[in-house]
Design brief:
Helix 4 (about 60-85) crosses helix 9 (about 175-195) and helix 7 packs antiparallel against helix 8. This protein has one domain (about 1-285). The two termini are about 20 Å apart. The longest helix has 27 residues, at about 60-85. Mean pLDDT is about 85; it is low at about 285-288. It is globular. It is mainly α. It has 13 helices and no strands.
Length: about 290
């Protein structure tokens, strides 16, 4: 049952790009309100059950959790920007290359040993990313910039994940995510201020879409993955997330008649195959 619930979590996460496409407000506005609503909804629970936890947690872990939130906020900004500028298929595939960036980061941190076959998987994923970017390059600078934004989103998500590995030794999932969402909301608010993006004055449906992002993509997406880690291996949870490009592309084809280009499909297959091969071969992930 938990395996099916994990797939449901991927389905929830896959709605991110769809919500962004239906909105007419700037994507940074949606990203900010997604985190703002998450903080607002979690605040009573954190005050009731987790305020004592924060008092007992080392200040370093609290600070790192907020930094992790900054990375998460930048990840959302880049990912949403990619959804605006390139195809949903390309954006979701490239954003999900986070998986092997985390593996490489773990290697440099001395936590993981990567074998030759695993490096071949990483190489295949990078090659797939190049194929996707090369295909979009023919469609104009906007598509290529969207691909680069998606890759930047993957890198920021890597920082969020690697920092979180140490923070969760001292904080519960809710306690940690509460600080992450706060850090992300503050980061996105600062970005809006720097770009002079108004906080209000948008059509009502944009706020409704942002709330949908919170409830479906954040709480029924990311939170489900955290829950599944209690019952499934980390390898399975990481692997099942790679279904997001497939789900998002199918929804985009139905809703927007956005049929992925052959280069996007070929590159996407390489990316997913490379990442999946790495995760299947990496037995050390299960020990985390």
């Amino acid at each position: 049952m938990s395996k099916l619930i994990a797939v449901f979590g991927v389905l929830g996460l896959s709605f991110s790009s769809i919500f962004v496409r239906f909105a007419d407000a700037d994507s940074i506005v949606l990203a900010f309100y997604r985190m703002f609503f998450a903080c607002l909804l979690l605040a009573p629970l954190i005050w009731w059950k987790h305020k004592e936890e924060y008092k007992k947690t080392p200040a370093l872990s609290l600070g790192l959790s907020l930094i992790s939130g900054i990375c998460f906020g930048m990840h959302l900004r880049c990912a949403f920007l990619a959804f605006d500028m390139t195809s949903i298929a390309a954006a979701t595939v490239l954003v999900n290359t986070e998986v092997f960036f985390v593996a490489i980061g773990g290697l440099f941190m001395g936590e993981d040993k990567i074998g030759i076959l695993q490096w071949l998987g990483i190489g295949a994923a990078f090659l797939g990313s190049i194929v996707i970017a090369a295909g979009d390059a023919g469609g104009g600078g906007s598509l290529l910039l969207g691909d680069l934004a998606a890759l930047a989103g993957a890198l920021f998500s890597t920082g969020y994940t690697l920092i979180g590995k140490s923070c969760r030794k001292h904080l519960t999932t809710t306690g940690y995510t509460g600080l992450v969402y706060l850090g992300a909301a503050l980061t996105l608010a600062a970005a809006m201020g720097l770009t002079r993006t108004p906080f209000t004055g948008y059509a009502p449906h944009n706020y409704i879409l942002a709330l949908g992002l919170t409830l479906i993509c954040t709480f029924l997406g990311h939170s489900i993955f955290s829950w599944c880690l209690r019952y499934e291996t980390a390898s399975y949870v990481s692997l099942v997330k790679l279904l997001e490009p497939l789900f998002a592309s199918l929804m985009a084809a139905v809703l927007f008649r956005e049929i992925p280009a052959y280069t996007t499909m070929a590159g996407g297959i390489l990316v997913i195959a490379g990442i999946a091969a790495y995760i299947i071969l990496d037995r050390s992930i299960d020990k985390k």
